[in-house]
Design goal:
Blueprint (H helix, E strand, L loop, with lengths): L3 E5 L4 H12 L3 E6 L10 E5 L5 H15 L4 E4 L14 H29 L2 E6 L3 H4 L5 H21 L4 E7 L6 H4 L3 H9 L9 H12 L10 E3 L5
Parallel strand pairs: 1-2, 1-4, 2-3, 4-5, 5-6, 6-7
The structure holds NADP nicotinamide-adenine-dinucleotide phosphate.
């Protein structure tokens, strides 16, 4: 039987690249995002889910249980990454970022962890960012949410270790997705100049870290954060 990967935020960017990677490596992939996906691959199934909505996540997890019975790998990738300054940011801009990045990650990990616990096995990977280590102006909400993801993942790692589930974090530096391009050339240049390895990442480099976390030989690696392109 093929292994199963659940991945959030697969309609574009890193999530879409990860869905392609897992299908290529023999997985059945359950992907989601708020909008539809144009990804048509055998073994890939897309569901429209807003991860910040607890009920929608619960329904998605239930459908995964019905369709696949269990999940081997979860990548909680869905995220919003706007850039805005403290004094110019109303709650209606702030709240979706916190709801998606923090609550969304929490709800999805909670739902899928329950499926993994039944089988006493699983690999959870959450997605933080270089922003959490750089303290860049304009990223207070985003960086706070990405720091929260690191903290919650380390605690999930302790709570879920007795069930054979590992929980780790990938913190990419920068890869040119729509979300990054929207930040504008000046912000991108400035962020790249602050990295230890001052260049953008490739999807292959991100998949390499994911493959490390999912490898059977990594069953003893949990609560870890791999920062890419940056010494934190
Ligand atoms: N690109 C980078 O350089 C970089 C660096 C560090 C960390 N990251 C992190 O990597 C992840 C992916 O980033 P990206 O650059 O690939 O972003 P992206 O191109 O904007 O893609 C984000 C994905 O998440 C989905 N999404 C957003 N909000 C959602 C929600 N509430 N519920 C479900 N799906 C949602 C989007 O689809 P819909 O709009 O259809 O919902 C889309 O599929 C994010 O967590 C980001 O913070 C990216």
């Amino acid at each position: 039987m093929k292994p199963v990967a659940a991945i959030t935020g697969t309609s574009k960017g890193i999530g879409r690249g990860l869905a392609e990677y897992f299908v290529d490596h023999g997985y059945l992939v359950a992907g989601c995002s708020r909008g539809p996906s144009t990804l048509e691959l055998e073994g890939y199934q897309h569901t429209q889910v807003d991860v910040s909505d607890e009920n929608q996540v619960a329904e998605w997890v239930y459908s995964i249980k019905e369709d696949y019975d269990g999940v081997d790998v979860l990548v909680c990738n869905a995220g919003l990454a706007p850039s805005f300054l403290l004094v110019m940011t109303p709650g209606k801009v702030l709240e979706p970022v916190l709801a998606t990045n923090i609550c969304g990650t929490y709800y999805v990990c909670r739902g899928i962890a329950k499926l993994m616990m039944r089988r006493r096995s699983g690999c959870i990977i959450t997605v933080s960012s270089m922003a959490a280590g750089l303290h860049l102006e304009g990223t207070s909400a985003y960086s706070a949410s990405k720091s929260a993801i690191v903290e919650m993942t380390k605690i999930f790692a302790k709570e879920l270790a007795p069930f054979g589930i590992t929980c780790n974090v990938i913190a990419p530096s920068m890869i040119m997705t729509e979300a990054v391009k929207a930040l504008g050339e000046k912000t991108i240049k400035s962020a790249l100049s602050k990295l230890t390895i001052k260049r953008e990442l490739s999807m292959e480099e991100i998949c390499n870290v994911i493959s490390f976390f999912t490898a059977p030989e990594s069953r003893c690696i949990t609560g870890q954060v791999i920062h890419m392109g940056l010494v934190v």
